[in-house]
Amino acid sequence: MSSIGTGYDQSTTTFSPDGRVFQVEYAMKAVDNSSTAIGIRCKDGIAMAVDKPVISKMLVEGSNRRILNVDKHSGMCVSGLQADARQIVNHARDEAASYLDFNGGPIPGSVLCDRVAGLMHAYTLYWYVRPFGASVLIANYAEDSPELYAVEPSGLSYRYLATAIGKGKNAAKSALEKLDLSTLSCREAVMECAKILYMGHDPSKDKPIELELSWVCDETNRMHQLVPPQLKIEAEEAAKAARAAMDE
Amino acid sequence: MDFDRSRFVDRELLDPARVMEGAHGGYGRSHGGIHVENGTDNSLDFLKNPVDLGTSIMAVAFKGGVILGADSRTSTGVYIANRVSDKVTSVDEKIYVCRSGSAADTQAISDYVTYYLDMHRTQYGKPPKVQTAASYFRELCYHNKNNLTAGIIVAGWDAAKGGQVFSIPVGGALLERPYAIGGSGSTYIYGFCDAYFKPGMTREQCEEFVAKALSHAMARDGSSGGVIRMAIIDENGVERKFIPGNKLPYGPL
């Protein structure tokens, strides 16, 4: 990064001589410093999970949600600056609602992803705004098959079978590659998500974490929602057991 | 060439303003065709009326497709502006509409929807759903209800739900129906349709149902008539059909 310190990293409206926009790369760093989020697409739906550091013992459980509903059939899992992410989610909700109102049917995943990506890209183009310091996973299962997308601060978007963003994304991605996604059910995917997140968490070293798990699948009637408490407990127990087995 | 003023055709040529006057005094006189008092001639006033689709239209969904049908009369007041008009209009490859009300309004709305559906197709890369087309019509009809006279039946085929019929009456409601009738002529055939519509009819049965219902509507309704035009839409595409005015299946069943 020879251009750093030469002033080319101060604004999104100036390219560095080697054709980079440093502010966007810094925004991606904000995501890489944040908690890990995972999404898995199965035949019958999509599971998403994110870990949140428990910053205080006095914090009410379930606050500062990182998985949010966008529409009945679609949800978002965010990593990065939460305040930034909330703006993205709000925008996505507006897009989903207006699409439904105008077209008389639920927004397709590809369209929702395009609209969100368009917003995030717009925030890399003007001097008076900064890029969003957050990446989002979009889970959508409406009239088409289940779809999982990831959108980066640069405005790039990808459709994935499974992916991870945030601090532990590399370890999580290599764990995801070992899964057989053609046979995995959504219920199993929820368990895997929890397992992978706990794998990247060292209880002796790291701060305690709280999991958020969501799914949108045939079992939920294609509605995006947090997994039922019972399933969450099961998943966390299994994940902790797997983690303990790894340590031995 | 000899002209005979007792013949309608000749009156139309010689004196278009008085075509409706028979040899014994007809429409023009009884309606005060010529106002001597103020010296104005009102006999052509009906031409100032908006071009109206006083109409009989209907659409029926059957297994795997849908049939739309309409009469062909377009009137300007009492004057038939077009006796062979086509009120079954395409807005997309497999989505058609039956138009009733103001010809100008419904044409303009259909043009807008055609444009929106084209945009939809290019943006999302697949054919739009019938529900989507109906939703666009509703959007336009509802939000501009004070300036429009439009009763529209949207029908078509899409891969998601097959043949579908949506009715958008004046005011801009959106109703999905197994079949829909509309236009001034429809008031005469509610009983007919109640009695003879059966769910699960085949394509042939539906064709017959539409032809008979429209024939009866056209026979009773003064502002419906001419020929029957139909469009039959299914997975494979659209087939247009035509029943000439002297072959209408009107009469006892």
TrEMBL record, chain A:
Segments forming domain Proteasome alpha-type subunits: 8-30
Main subcellular localisation: cytoplasm
Subcellular location(s) per record: Cytoplasm; Nucleus
Tree of life domain: Eukaryota
Pfam families linked: Proteasome, Proteasome_A_N
Assembly mode: The 26S proteasome consists of a 20S proteasome core and two 19S regulatory subunits.
Name of the molecule in the record: Proteasome subunit alpha type
Automatic annotation (TrEMBL), chain B:
Catalytic reactions of this protein: Cleavage of peptide bonds with very broad specificity
Keywords: Cytoplasm, Hydrolase, Nucleus, Protease, Proteasome, Threonine protease, Zymogen
Keyword RNA-binding part of the UniProt annotation: no
Intracellular or extracellular location(s): Cytoplasm; Nucleus
Pfam family for this entry, one: Proteasome
Nucleus is among the record's keywords: yes
Predominant place of localization: cytoplasm
Database matches in PROSITE patterns: PROTEASOME_BETA_1, PROTEASOME_BETA_2
Active site: residue positions: T55
A Gene Ontology biological process term: proteolysis involved in protein catabolic process
MF annotations from Gene Ontology: threonine-type endopeptidase activity
GO annotation, cellular component aspect: cytoplasm; nucleus; proteasome core complex, beta-subunit complex
PANTHER family associated with the record: ATP-DEPENDENT PROTEASE SUBUNIT HSLV, METALLOPROTEASE TLDD
Chain's role: Component of the proteasome, a multicatalytic proteinase complex which is characterized by its ability to cleave peptides with Arg, Phe, Tyr, Leu, and Glu adjacent to the leaving group at neutral or slightly basic pH. The proteasome has an ATP-dependent proteolytic activity.
Family (UniProt): Belongs to the peptidase T1B family.
Quaternary assembly: Component of the proteasome complex.
Name the record gives this protein: Proteasome subunit beta
